[in-house]
Amino acid sequence: MLLPIHPIVKGLVVTIRARKLYRTPFRYDGISYIWDADNNMVADFRDENPGFIRVRGWGRISYMKDAEALHDEVIALITDITKHHPSDPAKCVEALNREWNNVGP
After folding, report:
1. What is the 3-state secondary structure (H, E, C) of the chain?
2. Could you point out which of 11, 20, 28, 65 has its C-alpha 20 to 30 Å from the C-alpha of 72?
3. How confident is the model over 20-74, as pLDDT tens digits?
4. What confidence tier does 82 reach under pLDDT thresholds 50, 70, 90?
5. How far apart are CA 12 and CA 5, in angstroms?
6. What does the alpha-carbon distance between residue 47 and residue 28 come to, in Å, rounded to a whole number?
7. What CA dihedral angle connects 18, 20, 26 and 30, to 10 degrees?
């Protein structure tokens, strides 16, 4: 008989999976996108919404197990790491490169 997974354990598993979706180093292309080491689009900055970073990746994540929870966790991780620099792509990339492998469990 399998026991249900405790919500805290499930949350930790989602955080670990979210961290493994992207690899450092991150880079800004100078136009509007942040990319990871494997050329996965991570986020973008739009002129019509200055001061906001838009997390990308739903097209890739939507086919994965627990896709909504995984995408929500990616958004939470990126938002937490970049919250002090929402309108500065270079500082967002610097923060992501410094903190990405240190977040979560």
Report:
1. CCCCCCHHHHHHHHHHHHHHHCCCCCEECCCCEEECCCCCEEEEECCCCCCCEEECCHHHHCCCCCHHHHHHHHHHHHHHHHCCCCCCHHHHHHHHHHHHHHCCC
2. 28
3. 889 999 999 988 899 999 999 999 887 666 677 888 888 888 998 888 888 888 8
4. confident
5. 11
6. 15
7. -50
Token pair 């292309």 in the structure block, residue: 29
Q: Which tens digits make up the pLDDT trace of 60-74?
A: 889 988 888 888 888
- What is the side-by-side strand order in the sheet with 27-28? 27-28, 33-35, 41-45, 53-55
The first and second tokens of residue 3, run together, are 């026991």
Could you tell me the sign of the dihedral formed by the alpha carbons of 21, 23, 29, 34, in that order? positive
Question: What pLDDT is attached to residue 63?
Answer: 92
- What six digits make up the tokens of 11? 């949350």
CA distance 51 to 6: 37
